[in-house]
Amino acid sequence: xxxxxxxxxxxxxxxxxxxxxxxxxxxxxxxxxxxxxxxxxxxxxxxxxxxxxxxxxxxxxxxxxxxxxxxxxxxxxxxxxxxxxxxxxxxxxxxxxxxxxxxxxxxxxxxxxxxxxxxxxxxxxxxxxxxxxxxxxxxxxxxxxxxxxxxxxxxxxxxxxxxxxxxxxxxxxxxxxxxxxxxxxxxxxxxxxxxxxxxxxxxxxxxxxxxxxxxxxxxxxxxxxxxxxxxxxxxxxxxxxxxxxxxxxxxxxxxxxxxxxxxxxxxxxxxxxx
Amino acid sequence: xxxxxxxxxxxxxxxxxxxxxxxxxxxxxxxxxxxxxxxxxxxxxxxxxxxxxxxxxxxxxxxxxxxxxxxxxxxxxxxxxxxxxxxxxxxxxxxxxxxxxxxxxxxxxxxxxxxxxxxxxxxxxxxxxxxxxxxxxxxxxxxxxxxxxxxxxxxxxxxxxxxxxxxxxxxxxxxxxxxxxxxxxxxxxxxxxxxxxxxxxxxxxxxxxxxxxxxxxxxxxxxxxxxxxxxxxxxxxxxxxxxxxxxxxxxxxxxxxxxxxxxxxxxxxxxxxxxxxxxxxxxxxxxxxxxxxxxxxxxxxxxxxxxxxxxxxxx
Amino acid sequence: xxxxxxxxxxxxxxxxxxxxxxxxxxxxxxxxxxxxxxxxxxxxxxxxxxxxxxxxxxxxxxxxxxxxxxxxxxxxxxxxxxxxxxxxxxxxxxxxxxxxxxxxxxxxxxxxxxxxxxxxxxxxxxxxxxxxxxxxxxxxxxxxxxxxxxxxxxxxxxxxxxxxxxxxxxxxxxxxxxxxxxxxxxxxxxxxxxxxxxxxxxxxxxxxxxxxxxxxxxxxxxxxxxxxxxxxxxxxxxxxxxxxxxxxxxxxxxxxxxxxxxxxxxxxxxxxxxxxxxxxxxxxxxxxxxxxxxxxxxxxxxxxxxxxxxxxxxxxxxxxxxxxxxxxxxxxxxxxxxxxxxxxxxxxxxxxxxxxxxxxxxxxxxxxxxxxxxxxxxxxxxxxxxxxxxxxxxxxxxxxxxxxxxxxxxxxxxxxxxxxxxxxxxxxxxxxxxxxxxxxxxxxxxxxxxxxxxxxxxxxxxxxxxxxxxxxxxxxx
Lengths: 274, 315, 477
Prior knowledge:
The complex is a heterotrimer of chains A (274), B (315) and C (477).
Chain A: H1 5-33, H2 53-61, H3 64-96, H4 101-110, H5 120-129, H6 137-159, H7 164-172, H8 177-188, H9 190-205, H10 209-214, H11 223-233, H12 238-258, H13 260-273
Helix pairs in contact in A: 1-12, 2-12, 3-6, 3-9, 4-6, 6-9, 9-13, 11-12
Chain B: H1 4-21, H2 24-59, E1 62-63, E2 71-72, H3 76-83, H4 85-119, H5 122-137, H6 140-150, H7 156-163, H8 180-205, H9 209-217, H10 222-233, H11 235-250, H12 254-259, H13 271-281, H14 285-311
Antiparallel strand pairs in B: 1-2
Helix pairs in contact in B: 2-14, 3-14, 4-8, 4-11, 5-8, 8-11, 11-14, 13-14
Chain C: H1 7-17, H2 20-33, H3 56-59, H4 64-69, E1 78-85, H5 90-101, E2 105-112, H6 114-126, E3 133-135, H7 140-144, H8 152-158, H9 165-169, E4 172-173, E5 183-184, E6 186-191, E7 194-199, H10 200-205, H11 215-227, H12 246-256, H13 259-266, H14 277-291, H15 304-312, E8 318-322, H16 326-332, E9 337-340, E10 353-354, E11 357-361, H17 369-381, H18 383-391, H19 413-426, E12 430-431, H20 441-454, H21 460-475
Parallel strand pairs in C: 1-2, 1-3, 10-12
Antiparallel strand pairs in C: 3-11, 4-5, 6-11, 7-8, 7-9
């Protein structure tokens, strides 16, 4: 494509501005995090005497290892189960085309646009009655349920595009439905599965409302929930608050930068299908 | 996505013939097994979404403090939601947020994506994409904390304004009745711009370059090119952007909870936050549930027409 | 209410009959592999609301044997779960001292900001794993729902009934739901006092040599401070901390009227109203202060901790606050912060202050209630604890009258506030805080209305009417 030099310059300038605005809050956090603890920093100022020790302090007071471990456990509790059961359902609805599948699918679709706040109240009582309030299960079990509309929708969209000839051939060879699923379709679904897993992991990691309402102990929460608690805790001390927030963000940022292509494409497909 | 509907319809006829020719016993057994495949997902969904949904509707018909006995009040809670000026204001706030959560990201996203398509190829483009996407992967709580700091009295925004001689307009943005809601909206826009931009950019890459070539030969300018080729070609992607961002606006919670707590006054209180406060602090579970049902209906009422518009003529 | 049908019970029916199998199955799954589950879940306890039969008489009284032996923390290791308010050192220091004296007791402490604390308290108390000791902003609605332990038998066992009656009266709730008398449901870690802190250097700059003795004199100082380009008052009014302008407002109310109707309103006496002529005058004064620019411009976005930090650094000649802040000011600006009781409208008129116990309660379902009660008694009677109360908390530790108040360091503001306590007692001017009248009057009434007033969107009259309407709404059955 031939583009005028002037357009290239102005275009890049506009982009730079947008990129700068995107980065600004992060820079501001970093700048404040490097000021002396308990001081009253300005928006962005050159850290003439950078206090890297703030990060050490924040690491200790936020109990980062425990937070990380809790979030990881929750993701591990949610994502594999959610992916497996939604794949099975998507396979049955999209590929096996079971009787009543259309109705079931519509039932799942109903939940696709449901705001979590809409059911958080009964969810609280439900979780309390199950005796799992204030445990990681209070986040894990409801999240699996809440992810089903999207996850089933996603996997159905994958399986509906799978040619039936494959299954036909396997059936002729005497494969059961389970074989069909396990040996043939699951391996073929890997790209869709991994994209779904990435999406659900990010959403779980960032889930705030369920953590806020269902789990009081920050050490049993997701990263976002822990961050909320941390903010309530250290609102007094801006440098420490900023340092802690950045620390809590770091794992996400690192994983994103490493797997950014997968992340971006997963989230794009996710919103396109959602 | 682009040609899935085509695939789908051809696939559908395949299945139809297949169903007709397949022995009926196998159909039945595969149905039983198939249903077993659906059961786990359905159970989790029923337990943690459908049941709570039904319960929300049920609670909404009662006056209940969440602990003591409850009292049947019929539709009274709904009347309150739809007549109480405070609650109406709260609902209206969600719609005002759409301006920022939807209009800004989609329109800016269109501009930025067009620019990126034309001038930001290669390394610079990849870097810009990565950075623009950052707000999308961090928790909204983090966005709230960062922006609360940016918009505070001694934050960057006021710092910049003072530096360019606009010291007179500096203020505590999140504590100002006129600016708190727009400020919250800006936070949402910041989160969503990257997603919209890259979605739209992906959509643009699917538009046949030949269209642009011929437009250029016809002497069309950048604006006409944008209006007659880019925009129509992106119909679906724009629909998706609008859907995602409208839901984000109507169902907002995290950002508001962290950045303003709903204040000053009720200036930034949105339905999601009010449901939480009514149910758990005010202990008006019935009223909170009625608001929840209204919110759900509003989301559906906004999203369904958008979906229809965006996908309407493709089927 | 007699015909009331419990949502809870129908929930139970529904979950057992319809998706009951599923719920039970989930419960089994959960109990089978819940590693962090601190409470054994059981599939049979599928009830959404505790039945009204679980009255405090059965569940809330300490066991008879425990009382006979004197409630204590025993000798076995105990982990006390505390839920404290962010920004206040006192409970943390007290808990550390307690562990030093009773090494078998360790603490697991959570904390949050005041507004968040208020919104999460009912949920925390109703949950399966409530804290053993919790900072309570307000108690009446919690008592009504049987969420708090009745402390009467502890009071008898420890001899709290021999303390000055006024100390615990604010934590008593009568059978009809009014506060001020009846059974005891909480106790104070100490007994705080509010008034006006001032920056000595800046006060001298505007010619203040003596604390003002009339409201007019105080307002004169505010005008002088404004004219001298100083920040007259530093205040917080952001949603997260709650509307701090309630402090000056209530001081104005007491300066212009009597404390009795204010206390009646707070204690939910029948027919009480906040919308009185003198309160209207008070709100008008506050509005004048706002429009004269006496408060920091960003007060609606300023949080409590933020305001204190800024006052400590010299921003603000005056600050309305309580003696719990003494130690922090002593540290931030040694020797430069003074304190006076808010003056009456008339010279020599009665002075008043918000004087409230720093209320801590024990949830009805607390696992270590005896130990928590023992802690409350220890705070009021142990010499070391009382010393912490004064030096860290800045307040009168209360407790039995035969114990003296431990001394504060020379030159500390604590000496000023303790002396002021005597003056308030003399004119019988103690009030509870208007934010404590009902469960959400602060979050849904005072805070948004005061924020609106700061934003120029509410009149003095409208403020009081709106708060009164919210009050009545919350008291409605």
